[in-house]
From TrEMBL:
Protein name: Uncharacterized protein
Signal peptide range in chain numbering: 1-39
Keywords carried by this UniProt record: Signal
């Protein structure tokens, strides 16, 4: 009588073990299925294009709109000449140096090298916007503006040269083609198809070979907050207000580029 009882107990235990293992097996099967799903995100597309990833068959920039004569950052491009404490103007010689190159601004801050698929695409787009009227820098070669010039520094003032390069701003999006399909697709966009948040700035070049832009001499009254900011700055090319935007303590005089000697 006791033997059948033990047999029933053994079978019941085996069933319980089987039922307990079944959900675990189901979860184990589901994990690889979930990990293989999902298409490339815009940030992944940007990162792969910037790194010229081996996963890519191609990556290209698609232009949507453009704006010529776009002014770049306002930069201080000479040393600061000090005429503080003087009641008279002073004649000072300034050494001016500025450089421009093609700049690629992706939404997450990456920049593409010239030798990548993406860099080649930017060059090809640049060819499209290079005309007989406006010459632009299509590749990542640097073009410089360098000269010495004597100018007048106002009484009790600091003076230096400012520069803002003229650029052609072409905006659009990235189109990446992957070697292996993801979710049945090989083509993905960043940040989205038809978007205009990827910018490529092509510097505009004058016929004499120097960069085009706005150049001006800035005088700043000594003893003012603006002058204190200059003295405390450790950056040679720190960000500055634009032409005519410095306030009451700042005087700007534009210098025609025709007065600048050719290289």
């Amino acid at each position: 009588m006791t033997r059948p009882g033990r047999t029933r107990s053994h079978r019941s235990k085996k069933k319980r073990i089987t039922l307990a293992l079944a959900p675990v097996a189901a979860v184990a099967v589901a994990v690889p299925l979930m990990s293989s799903a999902g298409a490339a995100t815009p940030s992944e597309v940007t990162a792969d294009c910037s790194a010229d990833s081996d996963k890519l068959e191609n990556c290209e920039f698609v232009d949507v709109q453009f704006k010529r004569d776009n002014l770049g950052p306002n930069q201080r491009v000479s040393a600061v000449s000090d005429n503080c404490g003087s009641t008279a103007t002073a004649s000072k010689t300034f050494s001016v140096s500025a450089a421009v190159t093609r700049t690629i601004q992706l939404e997450d801050g990456f920049t593409a090298d010239a030798g990548t698929k993406l860099g080649n695409s930017f060059f090809e787009i640049g060819v499209k916007f290079n005309t007989s009227e406006i010459n632009i820098t299509r590749d990542d070669k640097t073009t410089t503006l360098a000269f010495s010039r004597t100018d007048t520094v106002q009484a009790d003032s600091l003076a230096f040269f400012m520069w803002s390069a003229k650029r052609t701003d072409v905006s659009g999006f990235l189109r990446a083609t992957y070697k292996e399909a993801q979710d049945g697709r090989k083509v993905f966009f960043a940040p989205a198809e038809g978007a205009t948040s990827v910018h490529v700035f092509y510097p505009q070049i004058l016929k004499n070979g120097t960069p085009d832009g706005r150049l001006w001499l800035r005088n700043v009254k000594c003893g003012t907050p603006e002058a204190a900011g200059l003295r405390n700055s450790t950056r040679a090319l720190r960000s500055e207000p634009g032409f005519g935007e410095g306030g009451a303590n700042v005087t700007d005089v534009e210098i025609p580029l025709s007065d600048v000697p050719a290289p």
